[in-house]
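Project channel, design review

CF: Before we commit to the Candidatus Mancarchaeum acidiphilum constructs, I'd like one complete example in the thread so the newer folks can see what an input/output pair looks like. Taking 30S ribosomal protein S4e.
RD: sounds good, go ahead.
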Amino acid sequence: MAKKGGTNHIKSLAAPEFFNISRKEETYVARPLPGRHNLYSVAPLEDSIKKLGYSDNYSDAAKVIKSGKIKVNGKTIKEKKFPIGLNDVISIGKANYLVSIDKFGHISFNETKAPEHFIYKVVGKDKFKGNKIRVRLNSGTVIDAGENAGKINPGDSVKIDSNNKIIEVIKMKKGAKCTVVSGVHVATSGSIEDIKPGNIHTGKVVIIKDDKGEIFETLEKNIITMS
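CF: and here is what came back for 30S ribosomal protein S4e:
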């Protein structure tokens, strides 16, 4: 049993809330491969396939994935532990599912049309070979900023295609539409009313009016701009 509790699996009692694991029914859950998103906002692909109803157990989910019928963000994935996180799109045949988060902080899936683009938050920006600018996204992906280098700052979002080419920069600014992905108001959507400086420990504070017209504050790090 010690082997199962090692690096390949996580005890369900210790699994992040995002996994939304039944701790009574599952003793262990596969640990997602590193590299995309982070452990607290990611789930293994096999678990997502099971939750979507395409298998009754993890063994069958692994077979479905191995068959090459699953795409993530337009690319065929055959690794059962492939990390799935916010704003990824899982495609199975003609069905497409946008990965979201519910009000309890759990992974959720919303059926959507065939993906043409994907939106991720910029969490870092630096220079690399040839004085070029690259940005690091909340998905863990690092991409060349290209001609958008001067427009992008950490906190903004980018709309990218399946080849990681930037289609649009979505600024973190007053009037932007956003979704809360962490904190007390998780899964709430609205528009940014104002952005306050905050401090070195918390970062910027954002004032948001939700879709019901209610006003609340949250930290900038808790939201992602969507349009």
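RD: helpful, thanks. Confidence is low (pLDDT under 50) at residues 1-6.
CF: The chain has three domains: 9-112, 118-170, 177-225.
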